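[09:14] KT: can someone run the structure on this one? pasting the chain below
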Amino acid sequence: MITLYGIKACDTCRKARKALDAKGVDYRFHDLRDDGLDAERLGAWLARLPLGTLLNRRSTTWRQLDDAEKEDIDTARAHALMLAHPTLIKRPLLDTGNDLRVGYRNGDFDDLTP
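[09:31] RB: done, structure tokens below
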């Protein structure tokens, strides 16, 4: 089962959901705020994706962190921060079971089939 991770209020997540719906792709939406995020899943993502791909340094949450929390960020510290603040994860994140895709632009899901 394909899972789309994101936040309901995120415009980009809404666009991604619309694109999946329009293509008739069967997927489950997992809201990172409402449904939470477990440490094991986040660790698996960090093992497969570069930190710079997964950590959203342009988010409001990132800007609101203390400078000390943002300094010398490594995978372990980023893991702890993203668990505490799931909005630090770039979104949407699409997990096809074989592939992880971060972000969405029109046409990104054209290769997916229902």
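[09:33] KT: thanks! The first strand starts at residue 2 and ends at 6.
[09:34] RB: yep, looked fine to me
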